[in-house]
Amino acid sequence: MHPERRSDMSLDPEMSPAPRKAAGGVEPLRRKRVQPEPIIVSPRGRRILNVVLGFATVVLMVDALVGDKGLLARMRARDEYRQQFATVETLKNENARLRKKAAGLRDDPAASEAIAREELGLIREGEVLFIVRDAKPARDIAPASTDAGAPSAKPADHVK
């Protein structure tokens, strides 16, 4: 093995590779690193910068809380969403109940007959309808005549 080469391929500081040269013997162009000059800020300028940054932070925080898409608007929108969701669920349940009732009315003739009797006051052919009215208190009724054969002053209600 050559003394210049080692097996671990590490470079000695003394043995740095020579820079490449072009075929014509001219060195290639390289960019030089430019070190930025430090910006010196006076204490007054730093104080002004801190005040401006603090003001901007306060404005952004206030906007985040109460702006068009701020925290309060999000909370209101979330509450409205929950209310609307509850309303939709209630309407879905009501819709399912009405569908079940409609299917029952279509399929069960006794149910449709019960509705016709209760809501429309219909009766079957051959049935007799009795209308029962509340009795009036005793003081509103006129005294009955003493004549047993004389007709009463009040006409009798006719029942159909």
Written account of the structure:
By secondary structure, this protein is mostly helical. The protein has a domain at 68-124. Helices cover 46% and strands 0% of the residues. The chain contains three helices and no strands. The longest helix has 37 residues, at 71-107. The termini are far apart.
Question: Which helices and strands, and how do they pair?
Answer:
Layout: H1 43-66, H2 71-107, H3 109-120
Relevant terms:
46% helix; mainly alpha; 0% strand
Q: Based on CA inertia axes, which overall geometry fits?
A: elongated
Would you identify the regions where 5 or more consecutive residues have pLDDT less than 50? none
Helical run tally: 3
- Measured between the Cα atoms of the first and last residue, the distance is 134 Å
Q: Can you write the helix and strand succession as a string?
A: HHH
Rg measurement, Å: 51 Å
Strand tally is 0
Q: Fraction of residues in helices?
A: 40-55%
Beta strand %: under 5%
Largest sheet: none
Structural class: mainly alpha
Average pLDDT confidence is: 79
Short description:
With 160 residues, the protein is mainly alpha-helical. It has a domain at 68-124. It contains three helices and no strands.
